[in-house]
Amino acid sequence: MTLRKSMKDFIKQPLYQNSIYQMLSFAINSISGFIFWLIGSRIYPPNIIGINSTLVSNINLITLISMIGLNISILKFKEQYKIEELFGTYLKLLLCNSTVTSTVVIIILLLTMKELLYYLPFSIILFFVITSIFQVTYVFYDSYFLASNKSKYSLISASLASSLKIGLIFITKDIDVFGLLLSWGVAIGITILVLSLFFVNFKFLFSAFITSRVNIRLLKDTFNFSFDNYFATIFYRVPGLLAPTIVAKIVGVEYSAYLFIAGTFSAIIAMIPKIISQTMLAHVSHDSSKRNALETLFFALILVVIGIIIIFIFGDFFLNFFGVNYSVYSFKLLMLLSLGIFFSVFNFVFIMYKNSKGESKYAFKLHLIYAITCIPTMIIGVIYIGYLAVGYSILIANIVEFLAVILICLKNRESDLSN
Q1: What pLDDT sits at residue 109?
Q2: Which of 97, 176, 342, 370 is buried deepest, with most CB atoms within 10 A?
Q3: Cβ-based burial of 148 (10 A; exposed 0-12, middle 13-18, buried ≥19)
Q4: Domain tally for the chain?
Q5: Cα–chain-centroid distance for residue 152?
């Protein structure tokens, strides 16, 4: 068998094929994000970019909080319940969550960042809440496509949303401060409408969301798994999502823009281990062998290492497109963030391996260790050494979590040998 045929057979496996679709979707979102903020940086000054990036970061934070682990549970329990039941029950709950969460978050922002009171009229506050609801729905649709083995629709979704975001910038550029936020929200809203009409299947959507009731037994059965993964995801994501706000508050909104651009670049490779491990869970939702986990780890490591090399060699060049200041202030931070991703590969694959066995407590505990390490280190570091502390704190937290994984593996091995 030739190497070419072996690779072709390898890629044709559903697990890796869906991983590739998911990674391509994320790559499109990320690349369009570069272009989106690149165009924005040419139209608006850094302080306006900082305000818009802070709002977008908080929309992502709202999405994270509102999900309550349901985007992972739909992958795990898709064979135990009808997909219509999972989709309908979870989507109704998510819409309620996102409405309440976005309202609370915007109130907190207005109370803690007084300068936003000057910029934010009521119409923009309302649009912020609506965009948050759209974003939550958009992310959940992506999980539904993965659970239904229709990841190619995620690729279509990403392509449509990305094209609309970039195209709408030129329409909204004259709308003062919030042209970027408006472009983002309208693009996601149109994408949700198109997905609902043509790709989710209207009959399925009507049955799942309109005619069916919320399945309380389903929620009870999946509660512990959802709970553990919900808080695990929050523990892991919150430091990165809070970082722009922390930097804006302590150092200034201009440095928040530099951080946001570096984070957007690093996010391309940061999502590789997450996407591949979630795809593994979707395909082996009841149990995963160690061989599956090792193959997934190997596949993810190859892609991440290639991504890190590209960032170290060409990162400075790409950042120059945003302007000289972005190259000067973002490149070192980008390198620190990318190094942390290498260690996260081991952590994500181990967690999803344990999730496939129903042992979701490991996700909760390991990502809690990450958050406890990262957040205090980040805040103290930003106060004393500035915005670069964000990169150092995330790198250190990933290493600490990796060491915890090693200790758990050694402990489990000793337990197996004793038995």
Answers
A1: 81
A2: 370
A3: middle
A4: 1
A5: 19
Map tokens 């000054």 to a residue.
45
Which sign does the torsion angle of CA 307, 309, 314, 316 carry? positive
Of the chain, the percentage scoring pLDDT greater than 90 comes to 23
Tokens at residue 330, please?
């973002």
Single-letter residue type at 268: I
How far apart, in whole angstroms, are the C-alpha atoms of residue 61 and residue 30?
A: 17
Q: Name the residue range of residue 274's domain.
A: 3-418
Secondary structure of 215-252 in the HEC alphabet? Answer: CHHHHHHHHHHHHHHHHHHHHHHHHHHHHHHHHHHHCC
Nearest one of 154, 139, 58 to 94, comparing CA atoms: 139
What is the structure's pLDDT at 2?
Answer: 52
Q: Produce one character per residue of 308-324: b if its CB has 16 or more CB atoms within 10 Å, e if not.
A: beebeeebbebbeebbe
Q: Please state, for a pLDDT cut of 70, what percent of the chain lies above it.
A: 87
Name the token pair of 250: 């302590």
Question: And the tokens for 290?
Answer: 């160690």
Count how many residues are written for the chain. 419
The tokens describing 14, both together, are: 């559903």
Contact assessment for residue 147 and residue 106, using Cβ atoms and an 8 Å cutoff: no
Burial (CB count within 10 angstroms: exposed 0-12, middle 13-18, buried 19+), residue 25: buried
pLDDT tens track for 2-17: 545 544 555 556 666 7
